[in-house]
Each structure stands twice: as C-alpha cells, then as structure tokens.
Design a protein that fits this description.
The complex is a heterodimer of chains A (about 800) and B (about 350). Chain A contains 21 helices and 41 strands. Chain A is of the alpha+beta class and about 800 residues long. With about 350 residues, chain B is α+β, with helices and mostly antiparallel strands. Classes of the chains: A alpha+beta (about 800), B alpha+beta (about 350). At the A-B interface, α8, α11, α13, α14 and β27 of A face α5, β1, β2, β3 and β5 of B. The complex binds zinc ion.
Chain lengths: ~800, ~350
C-alpha cells in the first residue's frame, strides 16, 4: 500500500517529517519499507496566462503568444494547437533546464523573438500526457513557481500492510493510526452528494441471489456523465501511489478505493441488459471475458455480477470486458459491495488473478462503509465528469453487520503484557482507535470494535491494540524464572556434533545440499528395482524437474557437488553431509524421514608441496576414515563385505558396512561408468551410513581397561602365502591361534614379486608380546612363537620367508 | 719427581691444545691418566720415596692428577660446546617456508550458527526437539491458526507433496507436536530445515530456522522481551540496540518483529539494512489462544511465547555473505572459510 504524506495531511494534522511518520508507522506495526521524496526539478518554470494569440506571420502552425507572467508580458512561440486566450499554462523562462535536460533559450525564430517555452506535462515529466500544452486550473495566479502552485512536492511511503489489517489498505486507515498514536483529531471528508431527477430505482435494480456470498450490494446511478481525462491533481496523485490514470470515472473509483479501502466498480448502465444487476453464483461451465481480455472458465462456487442474462463481472475480482466504461458512456451504475472474503480468495487463486479489489475483499472490507464510499464517489464524479446523480441508492443488505462485544479486565491486560497501565489509559487508547468502550465496575470493561476492524474479535486482539498504542518499547523487560532442571544436549544432537567433529577434524568439509533431487542424480546410481530409493516422493509444484522430488539418498547430490567443484577447478575434495532422506512408506501419508551420513573423497591425501610429495587418495583412506568415525562411536572392527547390490560402486573395491551382522550402509570406490555420467575425471571414494545406527551408540557406557605396564617385546614375522588369501583370513587365523600374551598384530608390509614365487604373496607382521605382571624373557617368547608358528603355518598353508 | 710431574702437566696441556674431537680427548685421558699411563707410573714409584718426601709429593701428585682431569674435562666440554654451536649454526632453516598441512576440513556455516543459537538458549533452559519436514496441513497451518482460504497463507508459499501433505514452511509444526504430547511447563527449541517456493538472492526454496517456545502459567510479553534481549545481546554484542515492533503472525498475538541496530553502519543507514539502520532478526509473539485451543489447552490456564530465527539470515549478517545461494552451492573455497 502506497500513500503520500500530503494526502495523509488531508485527514490528520502532521507536522512531522516523512521519515518521522515512517518510523511512527513502523513502530505501530505498519512497516514502512520505502520512503521516497518526490521533488520535481522545475526551477524556472512559472505559471502564466495567455493574453493574446496570433498565427505566426510566415510559419504555418506556429502561434505567437503574448503571456502574462505576473510582472511583465513575454512573447513566446508555440507549436501546440490546444492553447486559447485566457488559458493558464506553465512557461519555462530562458535559462531554465527542463527535466529532460534541455536548456530553454531566448531565440529568434522565423523573424519572431521568443522568450521561453510553453510546456506539456510530458516535457515536465509530470505525466505521460503529451497531447498538448499542460492546462492549469483557471484561477491560477500568473508568475508563481509551478512546483509551489501545484503543490508538487510530496513524499511517497510504501507500507507493508499485514493480512490482519485490511483497514490500513486505505489512506484514511493509515491516517487513523497516526491520529491515535499522536492523540490528534481524524478529519474525515464531508460527503453530501447532490441528488437530482428521478429515483435510481426507475433506472435500474439490484437483486442478490447469493446473500451468503454477497451480504451487501449498493448501487448508485449517474446520468449525463462525460467520460474524459481526469484533472491533473487526480492523475498525479494516482500515479504517485502506483495506479495508472484511465479516465475520470475509473480514476474516481480508484481514488475512493484508496481513500476508504472500499473497491468500487463502474458499469456502463446502457450495456447491461435490462439495465439491471443480478448477483448469483456461476453455473458450471459458464465463462466470462474479463477486462484483461482473457476468457475465464467458471465453476459453481465463483460469484458473478450479472445483468438480466449474462455475467458482466467476476464479483470482487475483475470487471467484464463488455460492460466496461468507454468514451461513449453516459449512464453509469456504480457498484459498492461487500463480498465474502474466502469465496473471493478461492476464485482469485484458482484463476490466478490478484487485483487491487480482490486483495482488499479477501482481507475483508468494511460492510458498514459501502454506502458512504458510493456516495463519496458519486459526488466526485458529478463534479469531475458532470451529469447528475439519481435519487436514492439501490442498497440491498440481506445480512447486516453484527458487531462483536468483548468483556475484559484491565488487570488481565497488564498480566499478559507484564505492565501496569491504568485502566483509564487503556480505555483512552481503545477509544482513540474508534472502539466503543463501556467502563464497568472495578477492573472490568466492555469493548465493541468498529466495523472496519474484522481482526478484533477476542480479548487477545484487544490486548494487542493496547500494546501497540502503549508502545512495545515501553513494555518492561523481564526474564522468566530460571528453570530448576538442567538441560543437557539431547543424545541425538550430541551424536550429530560428534560425527561432525570427527569428520571435520579428519579433514572433511561439511556440505548442505537441497532436499530436492531429480532423475539425473538418482537414476545413474542404479539402485535395484524394488529398492525403496528408486521411488522418491514427488513434489506437486516443483521449481524444476531437476528438483522434482525429495532425495532418497545423499550420494547423487554429493557427487554433483564434487563435479561442480571440479568444474571450478577446486581439487582434493573431501566432503560429507549429515541430512535427511525421504523414503515412501506403503499405507502411510507421510514418508519416512531417515538421517543419513555420507562422505566423498576425491583427489589427493596431501597436496604436493616443497616438503611433501602428493599422494592420491585410495580406498584405504576411505576405510581409515570410517574406522576413525566408527571408533568415535565405540565401534571397533566393523565388517566390510563385498556386495553386488551397491551398483553405483566399483564391484572389486566396495561393499556393505556391517556392525554385528546388521547392515548400516555401504562404501567403496565409485563405479567408473557412473564417474563418467557425472563427468568426474578422477577416482571418487564414498560412503553412506544410516546415522541412527551410530547415534544410538553415543551414550554407551565407557569402562577403563587396565593396560600392561611392562615393556613390550616385538617380533617380526614374514609369511609367504597363497595370493588368493585375504588379509582378513590371515589375521583371523592369527588372532585365533595367538597366545594371550600377544597384545597387537600389525601388518607392516605386503609384497608380491620376486624373490617371492609366482602366485604367492608375502605379508609381514609385527607381533607385540606383553604380560601385565612380569617381564617376558627371550626364551619364553621364542617358545611361544614356535608353538604359534607350528599351528599357524600348516593352518594357512604358509611358510616363512 | 716434582719436575716429572710438572713436565707431565705441561705436556698434557700442550697435547690438548691440538685435540679437536671428543675421541682425541678420551685418547689423551687414557694415555696419561690410564693404568699404563705416566701418572700411574709416577704414583707407583711413590713407595720408593722417603717418609718425609712421600706426603709432600703425594699431595702434589694428587693435585696434578686432579688438574689434569680438569684440563681434560674442560677441553672436552669446550669441544662439545663448539660442536653444539656448530650444529645450531648449521641447522638454521628458513622458517618462513610454508608448513606441512593436513587436509583442511570445516563446518558448514549454517551448522556453526545453529550451534551458537542453541548454546544461548540451552543456557536459558531450552531443550532441542526435532520434527518432520514433510508434514500434514494440520500441523503446519490449521492448528497454527492459518485458516484455509486465508490471505495469511500467502505469507508462506508452500510446496505440496499431496493434498494436505506439504513441506513444512516453518519449524513451528514442532509447537503443535510438542504441545499435543506434553503438559506444560516446557521450553523447547526446534531447529530444522524448512521450505518455501521462492528463489532469488535473498530467498532460497530451502532454508533453516530455529523456532523456540515457552509455555507455562502466567507468561508475559515482558518475559518474551527479556529472553529475546538476552539472546540478541549474547549472539551479537552486549550493547546491541534492540527494537520490538508490532507485526502479524497468525499463531501469535500480540506479535512482535525484533530488529537489532545495524552493526555495519551503526544505525546510519546502509545497503544491508536498506537505509533504515535496523536489521530484522526475529519474529515472535505470545502464543495465540486459538493455537492452545487446537491442542486442547485452555488459554485461561496457560500462556506462552514463541519466536523464530532464520539461520541463513543470521549467518549472512555475521559473515557478510550477500547471496543466500552460496550456502547450497557448496564450493570448497566457500566451505573452507568456516
Ligand atoms: Zn546499515
């Protein structure tokens, strides 16, 4: 909603600056988001009157004008054809720079000396009108600065009116807020339209067939109207607040809508069949062509304004093309009605139309104000467009407004706000907002809100009004009493923090991707048919196909993140995300929201530097990361089982992650063909885990295990084994056979090739012996080791290297 | 014999003068003070001396022995000292060379800001609760006093999954879930992801919020002011200017928007604060009686307040980020800054 400061001043005294008023309104809940000063640069443009007018002696179409400029007369040449003796027009004197930048000079043209230029509205950038020289009101005194004479200086305030305040979608509503805060008088315009001639009931009639949807409809009839350009001040005012001037009839309806908040519509009465109005709901399949030229298909709940036979307007939303006011219109039916807000909103939403009118109707206008607005507009129309107003309004009002009463207590107001405002003051605030307040005994009082405040229905609504006028800043600041219980972070949150801390500490960057995904990011991952991840939950109104459904995995988006970073020439990408995926559940309206933890690694483990060679990340960096991560949650020794099911991963270098035989996710090297799909030109390692399986372990009890204080003894052992033997087979056997004194077995070398014979591999282990109670002697260890080897070598089919 | 001893001393100090390593000094020690050395020989021949001479020369011999040992020790110490110095001189390196870096990880800025916000409210007794992101219309709108076909719904453009199933537009749905499941008093903080169909430099179709609410008997608007004042002062600066102004949210009344004084221009007006000198930080208000009714509470028994903060908004202000889309582009050069 845009208002101007000068316009506001017509209804309330304002001595404050525009910025001060903007601050005041913002502090009242009418947020002023924009405050624009309008100061046209018109120095040197003065008012003048045409004293005489003669055709130029030699140049056809040019006029030699003698102008009264207050002090002296000047001669000015003029090419426009709309100037007559006695007209008041703007004159730019020599030396003036008019808004377009052109400087006016005194010159001799075709033998006549011209001292200035008569200007059009367009040349002064006051409007789009360039039909001819601008005409000023006939009582304008010559010789004044034009800006002063027309009061062109103003300030435009852009106000964000919240949906609960339809009353402030009007200049008077905004003025009322200023008056209430400043305890000043609100001066409403006096409305006394002069009626002439026959009763309007003879010229037209109004019938409401849908009273629930249209509880009131006021029609006023005007005859002998001359449709034309509105006066400058009206066009100027409408332009300043963002409305395009159209003609004097339509401009008046817009002016009154902005002044009072009541949308009006003007019909050409002669284009209404049988010159009458019927308000009814649409028939299924019925259509109407609205003012914007669109044909609209209607359904039964749409409300229509019709003449005797056909729809002429989509009630409260937009007028019909065929009943529009045109240049030839002489008889006008002015509509000022109240439409049920929800119906207007449903129709507007369905058809995708929002107009100044529908915007106000769907927020609920003042039902009691319909007649007043119609009268105000009628009076202005007869004065600006001529004609006469027929006697009596056609006011059909089947469902009258019923005021609400709220009984309340001053002490309750103060308890809710934490204030101690006296009852008298409270009543004063409410009265200044035009509420009808009845003081009762003691603490109690009763309030009847005005009809233009549909938002005031219950006690809390009134409390808010008290707070607004009292001022939020004046309300004291207190803390609630401290709670008795101590709040610790919840286990789930601590688990999240732990996972993030570990991964960030390991060198990963956390990413946050959209929850939306698309086929391009899901299909290449090749989850098997029937997997719940292949049937994501689609959005009904997605922003694009690429964001068409909810993600079922974090991996597609993470790979996309990697690809995007590589395109930006970022290298060594270690990323993780902790977030939800959405899995559809049969028989349930809502999908399952599952938290997942996923990570990717691509590029180098170390960046090449002067003191360190670079090293590409490999699958064991991935595994090490998982080991550190899981160990932070108390999980030592998870299983990584080769699985054919994870089709997005390299079959030879990937698998499922299991903890105690429960599958919690998968990890491995990205499948080369998927790498290609995502246009990633280097190896990528990734994992995706169900976070719950980690989170549930964050609170596991921890217990201290004593460690041996005796010095450890280490023995190295190189085994030559069959090539097909895996590390896990070997280490399992070793652990099974090892003496209790063995505290650690570590693989420190893996070798294939000569001198180890073909088809064999060598694994070298470092075995640590340690006894908690005493030092072990060499002989003892030799004995243990011999016994160990005696069983191990045949068990593995191995020999010592 | 006296001459012999003195000559020995002379000889050793001369020999030491040309010794330049530890080993050479040790060699001299063995040579002169060892079992087969000249000093031992002299000491052994002591028994051939007369009773009067023996103690005198004995003292002298011991004295010389001590002096020789000191000379040798001194020399060795000097050599070692020189060796150390030489090493220190040699080991001088250019410490302006870059260090050996581990891979550089980082928390997403939204995580960092969420953590900070949670920490402040935890200190005031709030616990963290999460709720679903795909939600029924009832929890996201209806129960929060957003009636159907009401313009208030325009304030939040909604993604739909099915009829009456939507992506939550705020984390206020947690209010309804919590109130239905528990009995006051409680103080709850609900961080999470929310969605609105909107996309430009200041709007993202997905963003993050922290919603907080406190329900008890006799909760007042001035307490709302108190809690939010502490929050802003902790998250920003203790002297940050604050402004509470009336606003409208369907699920609170009275409703208040909270602004902090713009810390970039110190209130003078700049691009970030749209020349107003104020930055909108929070939406808040007393929980609307209709919300209490929708969860079966009697609004005469309980009162409460609720507030919501946009995480991206705070992060953008704190770190001077001017485009909300940067949070979701996940460029490494962005992520490694936090
Ligand atoms: Zn600023």
């Amino acid at each position: 909603m845009q208002v101007t400061l000068e316009w506001l001043k017509k209804y309330v005294e304002i001595e404050e600056s525009a910025q001060e008023i903007a601050d005041l309104l913002t502090q009242q809940g009418l947020e002023v988001s924009e405050c624009v000063s309008v100061r046209p640069h018109l120095q040197g443009v003065i008012t003048s009157r045409v004293v005489s007018l003669e055709p130029h002696p030699s140049s056809q179409g040019l006029w030699v004008c003698r102008m009264d400029t207050g002090k002296e007369d000047r001669t000015v040449l003029c090419g426009a054809q709309n100037v007559a003796v006695g007209d008041c027009v703007p004159l730019a004197v020599p030396g003036t720079a008019i808004p377009g930048g052109k400087v006016i000079e005194a010159t001799t043209l075709h033998g006549v000396f011209s001292e200035g230029m008569l200007c059009s509205e367009l040349e002064l950038e006051l409007s789009e009108d360039h039909v001819g020289i601008m005409k000023l009101p006939s009582d304008t005194l010559p010789g004044q600065e034009l800006g002063r004479a027309l009061a062109l200086e103003d300030d435009v305030l852009g106000i964000e009116v919240t949906p609960n305040r339809p009353d402030c979608l009007s200049v008077i509503g905004v003025a009322r807020e200023i008056a209430a805060k400043k305890q000043r008088e609100l001066r409403l315009p006096k409305i006394s339209p002069e009626e002439q001639g026959p009763s309007s009931a003879e010229a037209s009639s109004v019938q409401i067939l849908a009273p629930e949807a249209c509880p009131r409809y006021v029609g006023r009839v005007l005859e002998g109207v001359r449709v034309g350009l509105s006066p400058f001040w009206l066009r100027r005012l409408l332009s300043l607040v963002g409305l395009r001037p159209i003609n004097n009839v339509v401009d008046v309806t817009n002016f009154v809508m902005l002044e009072w908040g009541q949308p009006l519509h003007a019909f050409d009465l002669d284009r209404l069949e049988e010159n009458r109005i019927v308000v009814r709901t649409a028939r299924h399949g019925e259509t109407i062509t609205t003012l914007d030229g669109e044909e609209r298909k209607l359904i039964r709940e749409d409300l229509l304004i019709c003449d005797a036979h056909r729809p002429v307007a989509l009630a409260g939303v937009m007028g019909g093309l065929e009943s529009e006011i045109g240049d030839g219109t002489t008889r006008v039916l002015l509509e000022s009605a109240f439409f049920e807000p929800r119906g207007i909103r449903r129709t507007g939403k369905r058809l995708g139309i929002s107009t100044e009118a529908s915007y106000r109707f769907e927020r609920e206008i003042d039902r009691e104000g319909c007649l007043r607005a119609a009268d105000r507009a009628s009076e202005m129309m007869t004065s600006l467009a001529g004609g006469r107003l027929l006697a009596g309004a056609l006011d059909v009002y089947p469902i009258p407004y019923r005021p609400s009463n709220v009984r309340m207590k001053a002490s309750k107001v103060n308890r809710l706000l934490g204030t101690s405002i006296e009852k008298e003051k409270i009543l004063g605030y409410l009265t200044s907002l035009e509420m009808d307040v009845r003081d009762e005994e003691g603490d109690v009082f009763e309030v009847t809100p005005p009809s233009f405040r549909p938002d005031l229905r219950m006690e809390m609504d009134i409390v808010e009004e008290v707070a607004r006028i009292y001022g939020y800043d004046a309300i004291p600041t207190h803390l609630p009493e401290a709670p008795v219980s101590v709040v610790l972070a919840e286990p789930e949150r601590r688990a999240e923090e732990l996972a993030r801390d570990v991964l960030v500490g390991t060198g990963f960057c956390e990413v946050v991707n959209y929850s939306f995904s698309g086929p391009d990011l899901l299909e290449p991952l090749g989850f098997p048919d029937g997997d719940v991840r292949t049937v994501p939950v689609p959005l009904q109104n997605p922003l694009s196909e690429a964001q068409g459904f909810l993600r079922t995995t974090l991996v597609g988006l993470l790979l996309d993140t990697v690809a995007r970073n590589l395109r930006q020439r970022n290298r060594d990408l270690w990323f993780f995300e902790l977030g939800r995926v959405f899995l559809p559940c049969a028989d349930q309206v809502l999908p399952e929201e599952r938290k997942m933890l996923a990570g990717v690694m691509a590029g180098r483990r170390y960046t090449e530097r002067w003191n360190q060679p670079d090293a590409e990340v490999d699958v064991f960096d991935l595994k090490g990361t998982l080991e550190v991560l899981l160990e932070a949650f108390g999980i030592r020794g998870f299983e990584w089982n080769r699985s054919e099911q994870v089709s997005c991963l390299h079959p030879g270098c990937s698998g499922d992650i299991l903890i105690n035989t429960t599958k919690i996710g998968y990890a491995g090297k990205l499948h080369p063909s998927i790498q290609e799909v995502f246009e990633i030109e280097e190896d990528v390692y990734l994992f995706e885990l169900e976070f719950e399986s980690l989170a549930s372990r964050v609170d596991r009890p921890k217990e201290y295990r004593p460690y041996a204080r005796r010095p450890p003894v280490q023995r190295d052992l190189a085994l030559v084994l069959d090539e097909a033997m895996t590390y896990s087979q070997v280490i399992e056997k070793m652990r099974e056979l090892a003496d209790p004194g063995v505290t650690e077995i570590e693989l420190f070398d893996l070798y294939r090739g000569p001198p180890v014979s073909e088809g064999k591999q060598s694994m070298a282990f470092r075995i640590t012996y340690q006894d908690p109670s005493r030092n072990l002697t060499d002989e003892e260890i030799n004995r243990i080791q011999e016994a160990f080897l005696g069983q191990l070598l045949p068990g593995l089919g191995a020999h010592l290297r | 014999m006296r001459e012999q001893l003195l000559a020995l001393k002379e000889e050793v100090s001369k020999a030491l003068g040309s010794a330049s390593t530890d080993q050479e000094v040790d060699q001299l020690r063995t040579q002169y003070l060892g079992r087969k050395g000249p000093l031992t020989k002299i000491l052994r021949s002591m028994k051939d001396l007369s009773e009067e001479e023996r103690p005198l020369l004995g003292n002298l011999a011991n004295q010389i022995k001590q002096e020789l040992a000191d000379l040798l020790d001194g020399r060795r110490e000097k050599i070692r000292d020189e060796e150390r110095r030489r090493k220190l001189r040699q080991e001088r390196i250019d410490i302006s060379l870059p260090g050996r870096l581990p891979s550089r990880g980082g928390y997403h800025p939204l995580t960092t800001v969420t953590r900070e916000i949670i920490a402040v409210f935890q200190g005031m007794g709030f616990e963290v609760v999460e709720g679903p992101e795909v939600e029924l219309d009832f929890y996201n709108f209806e129960a929060l006093n957003f009636p159907r076909d009401h313009p208030a719904r325009d304030m939040q453009d909604t993604f739909y999954v099915a009829e009456d199933v939507l992506l939550r537009t705020h984390t206020s749905n947690v209010q309804i879930h919590t109130m239905k499941a528990r009995t006051p008093p409680f103080r709850v903080l609900a961080p999470g992801t929310v969605y609105r169909c909107d996309s430009d430099t200041t709007h993202s179709p997905m963003f993050h919020q922290v919603e907080g609410f406190l329900v008890d008997r006799e909760v007042s608007f001035s307490q709302l002011k108190g809690v939010l004042t502490v929050f802003c002062q902790t998250l920003f600066t203790p002297d940050v200017p604050l402004r509470f102004r009336p606003s409208y949210f369907p699920f609170t009344e009275p409703s208040a928007e909270v602004d902090i004084g713009c810390f970039l221009c110190r209130g003078g007006g700049c691009r970030v604060c749209s020349q107003t000198g104020w930055l909108e930080i929070l939406g808040s208000g007393m929980i609307h009686p209709e919300v209490f009714r929708s969860v079966g509470y009697d609004p005469d028994d309980y009162t409460g307040f609720a507030f919501g903060v946009g995480i991206e908004r705070i992060a953008m202000l704190k770190y001077g980020i001017d485009d909300i889309r940067l949070f979701f582009e996940n460029d490494q050069r962005f992520l490694q800054q936090f």
